[in-house]
Amino acid sequence: MNPLFIIPVVLVIAIAGIVFMVIMNKRYKSAKTEINIDQERGNYSSYKNELLNQDFSFLKNWMDGKVIDAFSSASIPQSTANKVQNLIGDGLKNVALSSVGVRLRRIETDAFWVLSGKDLHFFTTDTAGELEEHLIFDNFRIEKAQLRDGGLLKAQLGFYAKQAEEYLPKVHVITFDIDGQQLSLEIHDRLRYVVNPTDILNLKKQLQIRAKYQVVGEQLVEELKSRFSNLRSV
Question: CB-based contacts of 219: which residues, under 8 Å, 6+ apart?
Fold first, then answer.
């Protein structure tokens, strides 16, 4: 093929790509101006019910009829996963950790928190998204827990686009004292959102869903603080 023919084709593709990016960037900025997160927070109750009946209806099944006061996404810090792995690798039968489960080694799959009354439920999933582990931290455990700001959740993501940073969850690290053993887990300030391929060009819909996920998810820490004075220092 004549190289002189290839050059114009490449230029056309490059120009088309630039034009597409400019158009999408304008659409994004326009759609973003329509979202006021402070106003969205006023819709917390309706958003919570909507998500529990649709996107996160599985949580109601996992809770087996128990009330859901607040919920959000969760993650297992690498340090906790390593700690459990080392205990298992050493062949230690740690009664304290066994009482809350020893499957806290999987850090790449979805996990969730659910606050029900004064019990905090922690759910982990397998690679198919099915329930793997259900841990319950009762009033006694939570009253002895500590909460600290963990910053943005970057550790598991490696390099990421700067423009995506605003969508990364901020985390609080809650540390439980399990019979002398420290067990730390992460609470996200929003539910994890994965864009549906059919919505890839619908930026307005994406931003609306992200707002709902943030409004609902961030309320979990606020509810915890309102019920447990030892967690209010953060």
Answer: 44, 48, 70, 72
Exposure string over 98-134, b if 16+ CB within 10 A, otherwise e: eebeeebebbeebbbbbbeeebbbbbbbeeeeeebbe
Residues forming beta bridges with residue 100, ordered by sequence position: none
**Of residues 104, 102, 108, the one with CA closest to residue 80:** 104
- pLDDT tens sequence across 136-181: 999 999 999 999 999 888 654 444 455 567 778 899 999 998 878 8
Half-sphere exposure in the Cβ direction for 34 (13 Å, CA): 13
pLDDT interval class at 83 (50, 70, 90): low
Listed by start position, the domains of the chain span: 35-231
C-alpha span between 111 and 189 (Å, rounded)? 13
Among 32, 68, 39, 59, which residue's Cα sits nearest to residue 167? 32
- What is the predicted pLDDT for the residue at 43? 96
Of 204, 172, 174, 170, whose CA–CA distance to 190 is shortest?
Answer: 170
Q: Which residue has the tokens 């759910």?
A: 123
Instruction: State the Cα–Cα distance between residues 72 and 216, nearest whole angstrom.
Output: 7
Q: What is the pTM of this model?
A: 0.79
